[in-house]
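Run folding on both entries below.
>entry_1
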Amino acid sequence: MTLTPSLAGLEVVIARSEPAMATTVEAFEARGARVTAAVTATHTPASDGGAALVAALERPPAGWLAVASAAAVASLSGLAADLRPWRVAVIGSSTADRAAAAGLRVELVARTTTGAGLVEMLEDRTVDRLVAPVVENEPSALAGAIVGSALAERSEIIAAYRSEPKDLSRFADRIADAHLVVAFAPSGVRRLAEVGRPRHLVAIGPTTAAPAIEWLGSPRVSVAERHDLAGVLEQVERWWAVGNDLGSAS
């Protein structure tokens, strides 16, 4: 007997930045969904070309690296610096997988996928030095959590990459008509709000959900219980199986 894919018939818009879009689309399509990939941003090197990050990583002693996203992992890849002595703490299993694939020594994965969650776990460790590569031209939740913590005086928050927003206006009709929009970052929610109003939105976690709830209202927003791609897929499957009362997409 042939089983029907769990997301067969679902029309979904994925709003995510470039580094992780391909694997996300592949995962949804493998479950039968019809996907529109709305890339919210691409990432480019920091304005100094990574010089400040290299200098920090080469200056002894090595300590902990706090890595929040796939873009932060990409900013570390290929640097002219030896990362082997650095212990790495990451937000989320997807980021952990990417960091490990890039050769980083991942020792800590935040239980809650927020900057505050990662900092809270690091505060329970012996941390003599912490380096956090973050986005240069947008607010960083990880940076904010570090600044407000006991780790602040031992930390170096360094602009490692820039986020270059993409125009989503060509996706306006799909955002409005699809059964569902899935968002992976607060910045993606803000880009969506500029061009269309979805029927329902699934957010990867509470940080992403907050601006979506403010914009759409809580009945139209669902939050993944596990804050990674697998958790998002589980939430979408539940919604599609039992919670979808919006009818068919146009």
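>entry_2
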Amino acid sequence: MKNNTPRHSPKISRMLADIPARLVGIGWAVTLGLLAAFILAVTLIPSPYDSSRSIASRLLSAFL
């Protein structure tokens, strides 16, 4: 059984309908790109305390 009640007010629904799908896709791509850059930075940048280990390896050893 499907609920047909609107999830947003009519004003909000109009505002959301005005956002182009391409802009939403670009927003997602930028967000995922920044997340990937952060993960790469954590895994590749050496730790300031021990240059032979990465920041990610230090974090993993602290939590495990």
